[in-house]
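My main concern about presentation is that the manuscript never shows what a single data entry looks like. Each protein is reduced to its one-letter sequence and a matching series of backbone shape codes. For the editor and my fellow referees, an illustration may be useful. For illustration, here is how one protein appears when written out as sequence plus structure tokens:
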Amino acid sequence: MDEKKNPSEGSTVSNQRIRQPIVTICGHVDHGKTSILDALRSTCVQNGEAGGITQKISFTSYPLEQLKKTCPLIESSGIKLTIPGFLLIDTPGHAAFTNLRKRGGSLADLAVLVIDINDGIKPQTAEVIQILKRNKTPFVIAMNKIDNLTAWTIKDSSLKRNIELQPDYVRQIFDEKYMTLIGSLNGHGFDADLFYNITDFTKKIALVPTSARTKEGIAELIMMICGLSQRFLEQKLQLGTEPKGVMLEVKKEKTTNYIEAILHDGELNRTDEIAVANINGEPIITKIRILEEIEPLCAKFKAKEKVTASTGIRMQLVEKDDILPGMPFVKYNGNKKEIEEQFKKEIENTIKTDKTGIIVKADSLGSLEALLVLLRQQNIQVLKAGIGSINKKDIISAKANLDINELDSVILGFNVEPDEEAHELMKAQGSQIKILTNDVVYRLIDDLMIFRKDKRNEIEKQRLMGLCTICKLRILHQYVFRNTKPAIFGVKVEGGKLTSDLNMINDKEEKVGRIKNIQSEQKSVHEATKDMEVCISLPGVNFERELKDKEFLYTDLGETQFRNFKKNKDLLSSDEMQVLKEIAEIKRQTKSEWGM
């Protein structure tokens, strides 16, 4: 008979020092990740978050003695823990933050994937699953919000027993929900089952029903994390000799810059020099002014002379310029060339770009890598990728794409915005370049796909229709600047798009003339879109004689152009369709009927 591999079995291994496992709590933005973490550590962070959604990564040190106190099941199940505790990382829901990286793989040793039992796997959850799969990160699933199931009640302190004691119709609802989830996970290549049904945890993903609100299932979840870490991770948790870490966030308090980081291996002394990778993989060598460590189960830091992995730390460094979130750091022993080779290899493997494509910026290395992966899944090529605010160079690169592929004249910013110089340059560029920013990665991808679809339609429309556009103008009689030829006066774009050299007619199908110039805010512009008020000049037109009693002007379409527009009306906006109908009505009234 095969030996059962149960996470509650004790460990047989070595007396060598082992570090805390790093456990990341991840999932969809409102499935209760932070609430689960709060239940684990008995805090109330969730209530303090903006909109109830985690804004930044945070970490919590969870020592062994507290684990045993919170979860009596550890002792009663016979789990003999040698791990010193856990370092829990809370992340925003989007997949990028699950992608915290270290050299050779994922920063997380274990993940808790939180899924609302009522919602199942959302697109963002699927993204997280793919990242966990790609990084080969073992995970358990907290099947959260069981208290929201119809008529669910707590009848027993044992989770398994309580599920069994639910009324038949409640149990049926529960069974349907978790079986649906098992089916969805199977579609992602994972076998899963309720944790108490599993005999071999190397072959199946454990589902732990939980309620962050009532704390039901939290003890069982802790037991699973402890058991799996002890049984399957201990060999990987042996403490290395050299300190290694990842920068998480650069924070400013009053006049002082602090860097929050995770030390994931070795021991770091305050007197150590460290090397931090910059965006090009070159090492920034710096001394540590202040070294602080996160205190157990709270957000406070305490000054230390030495810290041991795995732990959350805060540092004040002598050299702080060019240090970016997500970058690796190691102890510096004078081996600059060796470190540089290591860093460059790591950065090159992370930031892979193409010969053509869009421009991408993100707030950290992990975020950038995840975003690049998700873009490649959509077959989107990336010409340039970087960390930090969108800057002037990014705008120039995007503008250069206009001559190659208009679909690539876009800049994506994940958790970053344009800097002041970029803002000014964008004003000068007009609407030729598109900047899309968002702090949720799946929304950013959605925005990009919508932009590309609209842009593709616009390019196709221009190809089909040539230089002709559909346009309806309202004449602003209060803004007549020149009556005599050329007439210069104000108009409002009621529908479609106004461009230079556009031939116009009035509502009697009488030819008015060709637009020579368009001005907005005393500057010449190439075009004007719906609801814009601009000034135009019409050569050969006397306003007083020809336009004084007119209210609207329309594009002068030939019959072939009209038929082309009608044939491709799915490419037209709603206001363009309305203008086309009005032009058709003008033709009908003047006996040159085309018909819609």
User: Anything to note?
Assistant: The chain has a mean pLDDT of 85.
